[in-house]
Write a structure and sequence with these properties.
There is one protein chain. This protein is an alpha/beta fold. The protein folds into two domains: 54 residues; 81 residues, no CATH class. Strands 3-6-5-4-7 form a five-stranded mixed sheet. The N terminus is likely disordered.
Length: 139
């Protein structure tokens, strides 16, 4: 479409403006941006879900793993679930460092980190003193 726009001296100049093409380009850019935003939201959702799952699983520190091995303490999945539940209860009560007593085993755990710090069983429990804890849970 030819549109007269400028008048210099006595000559009339026209500029070719293709409005449809400009609008199409703008729509393409918009749709690309919308898709990018949707992709980022999906990625954020996946990352958030993964982080929540990670935060719900208990971890064992290197020290705790060494103690479990040295002291020949074996845990069943049921016992790990009990430790997980104990940490959840401790978190509900605002406990930061907890002693978890289960059968003939004891564990010290960092509640905010959901990490078992150390473990003891049978012989190690006799005449033991546990320090730096602010709560105890019987699992």
């Amino acid at each position: 479409m030819e549109t007269p726009l400028l008048k210099e001296g006595s000559a009339l100049h026209s500029i070719n403006v293709n409005r449809i093409r400009i609008e199409q380009n703008q729509n393409q850019d918009r749709s690309r941006n919308v898709n990018n935003i949707a992709d980022k939201k999906a990625d954020f959702g996946k990352v958030l879900k993964k982080e929540i799952q990670k935060s719900q699983n208990i971890k064992f520190s290197k020290h705790a793993l060494e103690r479990l091995e040295q002291r020949k303490i074996q845990l069943t999945t049921n016992e790990v679930d009990k430790i997980d539940n104990a940490i959840n209860k401790a978190a509900e009560k605002g406990i930061k460092e907890t002693l978890i007593i289960m059968n003939n085993k004891a564990f010290i755990a960092s509640v905010p980190n959901r990490t078992v710090i150390t473990a003891a069983a049978d012989n190690q429990l006799k005449e033991s003193v546990f320090t730096n804890i602010d709560g105890a849970i019987f699992a």
